Amino acid sequence: MTETLVRETVAEPPNRAAPPRRKRREDPGRGWRLYLPLGLYLLFTLVPFYWMLVFAFRPTGSTALVPWPITFEHFDTVWNDLGFGLFFRNSLLIGVGTLGVVSVLALAGGYALARFRFRGQRLFLLALLCTQFIPGAMMLIPLFVIFKGAGLLNSLTGLVVADTAFQLPLALILMSGFVRNVPVELEEAAMVDGCTRLRAFFAITLPQLRPALVAVGSFAFIGAWNNFLFALMFASRQDKFTLPVGLSYALGEFNTDFGALAAGGVVAAVPVVLVFAVVQRFLVQGLSAGAVKG
Amino acid sequence: MTALDTRPVIPGPPRRRRRQWAPYALIAPTVAVLAAFLLYPIGSVVYYSLQRYNVTQPWKNGFAGLDNFRKMLTDDPLFWQSLLFSTKWVVAQVGLQLLLGLALALIINETFVGRGLARSLVFSPWAVSGVLTTGIWILLYNPSTGIFQELANLGIGDHGTSVLGDPSTVFPATVVAELWRGVPFFAILLLADLQTIPKDLYEAASVDGANRWRRFLSVTLPHLRDAIVLSTLLRAVWEFNNVDLIYTLTGGGPANQTTTLPLYVARKAVDSHDFGYGSALTVAGFVILLFFSILYLRLSKFGSRA
Fold first, then answer.
1. Predicted confidence band of residue B208 (pLDDT cuts 50, 70, 90)
2. In angstroms, what separates the C-alpha of A271 from chain B's closest C-alpha?
3. Of A102, A234, B54, B71, which one is least surrounded by beta carbons within 10 A?
4. CB nearest B243 (choices: A117, A137, A273)
């Protein structure tokens, strides 16, 4: 009986490989209705990215719309002279740290939510959902006071802690959806065969959750990488700046050097956009798995 | 079915009733983190809001009762101004994001050649931080080298104007920049829900002679209702609290015209170290959001799907 109940919670997989071409051919206007708006929207999405790339790679003073020959002078300026190399390192450490902590905690909590029924479960879930409505700006003053007392101001650890607290709820909600999508029968079979629950988890369930971990970890990473408010407020020493903070100072100072501004933007954008392009389909799956539905 | 689904999955190995400790152990670290860095701070913000608490004037610190709130409501035009701008901003963002995001989700949900790539590209701005969005749009809006100049060179539109410097265009220019980043996530949320609509519903509707528009109205929209309610609410809250983009794009100016409530809080807290008053502003923002959220969920009859 439990099995049938569980099945309901499993979302249909996105029908990627099911092209009912036969029927679609009969609709002559479909191509236009689809590709025209999509093309327009792609233009809106990509032109700004392209603009940044053009500025980043063409020599100062050039107005060519295609940056050729390309130059790396702006990257040299931001990376070495303006300290973006250090900011990049700080952002990376914070991102990876947050990713690590959030992944482990979300895995543990997500498993608990998906596989157990326990007292206080609804309350816990409700609390998780509620955290989505807490503004970051609201945390500013108390966290500042806490961090000051704990000596966490101007430390990367402090930023990992703050980012973890903010990324964890959504990561947990997503993860419990992913765990629910792994058939519980596999685990049960292993347990019938004499595995402990722990062994069953590590041998059977965890490998199935690899894409889920990639997705959840990536979003934690992106969130921490991009967090501006906390980094701005809690890390005032320049050697602890992150990329968004460095960039925001650059925005004020680069009224003339657009090349450097664009190059700084590319440095900040490339890692997250790459990560995101790879994992976006997992996000859609995770959300379909029932995470955001009332 | 839902995130609040708490039905038993593994009945638990032993049949005898034993106190379970595993789930509690598993969520304990999370509870600890959230309690220390989300719950406790919320409590202390409420506490600070009732205090005079200014780091630069410690001798004046002490219990203030509702003084901070009285000052805020009766004697602070900037509070009302920032609240008004926040509201304007949220309405513009959420309305446009819903329209564009829904259209985008519907398109990207179709099966077509290159869908995977199109999805990755269309969604990619969401990964970009507010500060970076600002950087990109500053380049794009720049009067001498931006897109309006290039278009003017091609004979389209006026000669390049400074859209961010002109008080009449700064608002739409800021809205468009945030839409660029915000629409994709809205589309992702709706797309996720679109994919859970059973195909046979559409087939049944087709057999009954429903045309495309009809199918959208009577199958797609009702199914999406809860997702739309939740995502518009989430976006409204997030956009209300948006700091990074507005802070870096306009700095709240000109003349505080684009100062949102969170921006005002940050300024009170960080620039003037007035933690007490800043906390009162924060609490006000939170109460407004809470009230709005409850009202919205009530009015939309969230979760009561027929």
1. confident
2. 10
3. B71
4. A137
